[in-house]
Amino acid sequence: MPPTRRRFPVRCLLVAAVAVASCRGGCHKGEDRAATVEGRLALFPAATRVVAALDAAKLRSSPAAGKLAALAQQSDADRREIEDFAKRTGFDPLTQLESLTVAFPEEARAKGELGLVLRGRGLDEVRLIAYARDQLQKSGDDLVAKPHGRFTLWSSRRDPTVAGFFVDRQSAATNVDLVRLVERAAGTHAIWAAAIVPEATRRELAADPASAAAAGVLTMSAGIDLGQGIEGVLLADVATAADAQTLATRATEALRDAKRNAQVLMLGLGPYLDGVTAHADGRTLTLRASLNEAALDDVLGRLKGLLALVRGGQAPGFGR
């Protein structure tokens, strides 16, 4: 993103490796401003409308996150690639990644624009650049540098529209509405997301009778916490209290129908949908979902069995 923070580049808002946690400029006591709401938004331009984030440090300390990660089968090739990356760059994403924040402008779908801020401990600009250049050169490409204000933009020679840079300090976020929304979404959640729904999206929803009720959604925010179990909340601010009540009613009906779904019944997941609730409070729709530790263990056990069947080419419900 240009230092002016006034517009999105042609295809990429921002791809940044934020080295604030590496203390390249010297460490000092006090609040890590890059971890605050304004710090997270500071590198994104005012056109940002959707923000989502993952707090890797919180996830690593979560028992539930470890159980979910166990569902994914990591190949030997993947492990070797991560080990090689950590050895050559000094950065192990599995242990040193602090947070990942992704942002999109209103016209993201039309132009393919996005921005990404990665924060981590021990980021070494020289070693990371050397690794990226070596990987690109193996495929006949190369990493090129382009001065842009006080930053150096790094991109591949073949695709200069996607660029990344390292920074040591950040400016203030100026989108007050988004800052407030993100403050509500972030809270203490390990994973969160916030969105100002684009006008074009609301018009598309209004034009479809099946989704017309959702056309009144102005903003959305969500948070997920993984402790021994999982807790999640979704808040949707709508135009009127009547819209909020309509959405709450439809969500409750959808949950009721889901409990009767054949595949849900076959997997024995129906009872766990009881932990999902929907209600309206003024112009805000609130959806909450909860799984305690025992319920989570049971669901993961069922999913593990299902994945084993799928990997064996015997997905239930699809015939074989």
Q: What are the key terms here?
A:
320 residues, alpha+beta, 2 domains, 10-stranded mixed beta sheet, 12 helices
Summarize the structure.
The chain has helices at 37-41, 56-60, 63-69, 76-89, 93-96, 108-111, 125-138, 176-186, 199-207, 241-259, 262-267, 293-311, and strands at residues 14-18, 48-55, 97-105, 115-120, 143-148, 151-156, 164-167, 191-196, 217-226, 230-238, 276-281, 284-291. Helix content is 37%, strand content 26%. The model is unreliable at 1-30 (pLDDT under 50).
Shape: globular
* Count of individual domains: 2
- Secondary structure: number of strands: 12
* Helix/strand structural class: alpha+beta
SSE arrangement, N to C: EHEHHHHEHEHEEEHEHEEHHEEH
Spans of at least 5 consecutive residues whose pLDDT stays below 50 are 1-30
Largest sheet: 10 strands, mixed
**Numbering strands along the chain, what is their spatial order in the largest sheet?**
7-1-4-3-2-8-9-10-12-11
* Average pLDDT rating: 79
Terminal residue distance: 50 Å
Number of helices: 12
Strand content: 25-35%
* Amount of helix: 25-40%
Give me the Rg, rounded: 22 Å
Plain-language structure description:
The structure is a single chain. The model is unreliable at 1-30 (pLDDT under 50). This protein has 2 domains: 14-167, no CATH class; 197-311, no CATH class. The strands form 2 sheets. The protein has a 10-stranded mixed beta sheet with strand order 7-1-4-3-2-8-9-10-12-11. The chain has a two-stranded antiparallel sheet with strand order 5-6. The longest helix has 19 residues, at 241-259. The protein has 12 helices and 12 strands. With 320 residues, it is α+β, with helices and mostly antiparallel strands.
